[in-house]
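Protocol step 6 of 9: fold each sequence in the batch and record its structure tokens directly after the sequence line. For illustration, a two-sequence batch is reproduced in full.

Sequence one:
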Amino acid sequence: MKLQKNNFTENFIIKNYFKKLNFDKKGTFNFNNDAAYLNLKNKKYKFTVTSDTISENIDFFKNDNPKSIAQKITTVNLSDLFAMGAKPHSYSLNLCLPSYVNYKWLKDFSEHLKKIQIKFNFYLLGGDLSKSNNLIISSTFFGYIDKKIDVFQNKFNINDEIFVSGNIGESKIGLEILKKNIFVNNKLSKYFIKKYLYPSPCKLGSMIAKLSSSMKDISDGLIGDLNKMLNDRLGAIIYLNKIPLSLNTKKIIQNGNIKLEQLLNAGDDYCLIIISNQKNRSKIEKIARQNRIKISCIGKIISKKGIYFDSQININNIKEYDHFS
């Protein structure tokens, strides 16, 4: 059922699909005000803020499941917060809705948002609705972190170790399967497409903030994001056989469907790059193990500028991911 001028109003959408997401928090005014307020009673914490936008035909396809779109707009923001060592508190949401959005779309989208909010313990402050030719969603997330902790992207020393959470390249493979550039059996296809449609943020960052020199989420590719962290100040040596790959990804590479070089700068992995002093390694690995989060030490910081591999792989063949290319 398409949007109808007479019975599909802004108030109707808010009342039926989004009021349930404010969790009756006082500062939201139950969405009856044009603004909301945040109140952190605990003076030990400070706010962190991040904002992202996802667009139809750029970050998702028109016919993607609305649950997947809800997953993506929350993951891109939660991932940034966790990379700051913060925990989520609340968020605002702006929706530019095209005419094909219907009741079922809004129900599935809002229900999945609620599921994610419950899982990570945050709520919706408010936002805005408008019409558009294409679906565009923007969101601002607020998190909190101990006032004594600051996590920078490029504050580290020579010989600090480089860790990566999760597995890289799976979202890229899923996208290539959807674009029919890779052909695999049905079981593998479902596995990788799910990784593309439903990326998941890594909450480990908020648990190891005190142990980390620097952190960044992998949204633009492992090598590209690591290069941003190095900031032309120091360099890194990467142990190629330590790059975290799932068994399914190894099958794809072995079958010649894709090369490892293509996965080293694939966007939208949302794993974390963590740089830390060697003395913290056992503590970080213990916390990750206790929370069933995969983490791999893939290299270390060196004085020579640039990124180098302990193999013959050619860094010049690895194209850096760019949202505008």
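Sequence two, same batch, same settings:
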Amino acid sequence: MTGGGSLLLGIDIGTSATKLVLLDPAAGIVAEASTPAGYQSPHPGWAEANADGWWRNVCSGVPKLLELAGIASTDVAGIGVSGMVPAIVLLGDGDQVLRPSIQQNDARAVAEIDWIRARTEADDILRRTGSPVTQQSVGPKIRWLRAHEPEVMASVRHVCGSYDFIVHRLTGEWSLERNWALESGLYDLATADWDDDMLALTETPRAWLAPIRRPTDIVGPVSAAGAAATGLAAGTPVAAGTADHVASAFSAGVIHPGDLLVKLGSSGDVLYCTPDARVDSRLFLDFHLADDRFLPNGCMAASGSLLVWFRDNFAPGLTFASLDKEAAAIPEGSDGLLVLPYFLGEKTPIFNPRARGTIVGLTLSHGRGHLFRSLLEGISLGFRHHLEVFRETGTLPVRARCTNGGADSALWRQITADVLGLPLERLAGHPGSSLGAAFVAGRGLGLFSDWEEIERFVVVSDTVEPNSAAVATYDALYPLFRETYERLKDLYPRLSGAAQRAAS
């Protein structure tokens, strides 16, 4: 079953924007549109967003996209949605959004993480759920909400993720895609179902959780209400969709074991394709879109968002191009300046929500260009830490690509290639997750017969080769990056405690 047309609509609920793409399975991308989004951090370590704002962006973006493409809504054959994972959207009676969504990089539930870890065996949790209990896990945040917002939790009827929320708004049907389930920490890999022990421990009722779906499953058609709100044709099939980083990696051509993707986005993602589930306590694990592959991966809580913070606070009015120019004039290593990019705590590979952003080595001879370059280098050194973990698990990159907004920076691309010591292929006109979401819908509707068909829409624009002299500099800097964290990690919670005492 398909809609009346032949085009596929992909919707991506991203941190900084809601992105839409129309894909012609035969000819490629027809049109793209983007509406700004954002998130708030009302307290240190918090990351929240307005789920109703995502829906408004979809409702306003779809008509603009259809008009831009010059097509009618009946030309859309099917819809796929991707989004941040595992964001938490709480819905009450009448599907009312009860509070801002808690994002995947939110680090508030520190005490709850410790509480759960103290009552479980780390190896058992890792084996059963595929991931350790971390700041990304859903369970600790549910416990935090029960402790701090009991009146909200008393009204909860459903818990869903970012893209599952949009699928529900479009169709009126409930679903939770399997990567939200896997990353939630509430899912049992062996049984492919919710883990009752983790549900009980985190006080998460099964009744709140929808059926688990594969990405290509058709959840339902666009409802009359969804059609009225968006301008889409009622009856258009909607697929369950998938996590944004999974869709983005796939649409970048990460389809064969050995393929590696570095995403220079708001957060820093690094994903590796394997033929089996390689579980490691320092990494996340996701399902690949293809059933016989997996994506061990890491996510740094702050990457591009750290650069935006620096620009807005210390270089107001300047563009990133201007900051790049200043930083490019600084030698590799930033004249002895080193940054730990843990400004939102950190997820992989250290899993420490108490970690803090750290700048080491400042002198009066350092200027803004030094600081900006050291931020780029610190983020790239964080990526290198992930590659070290990948290699320890027996994974060696065969092909490496980079995407997202940071890939447009020649300086950041070069620094990343130099720090990793790998050639990096940059993709031309890569729309990211929205393309993957559209393809998922097409695969679910039978418009694509093989996952490898995504290669028809992937174009490599250029390859950045690592500079041997710079590689040597970063080889010497990397052990200092690791040692600095090890020396400071016991200090971070004391700093947080001092700040909390001062605030109270």
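Proceed to step 7 once all outputs are recorded. Observation for sequence two: The two ends are 59 Å apart (CA to CA).
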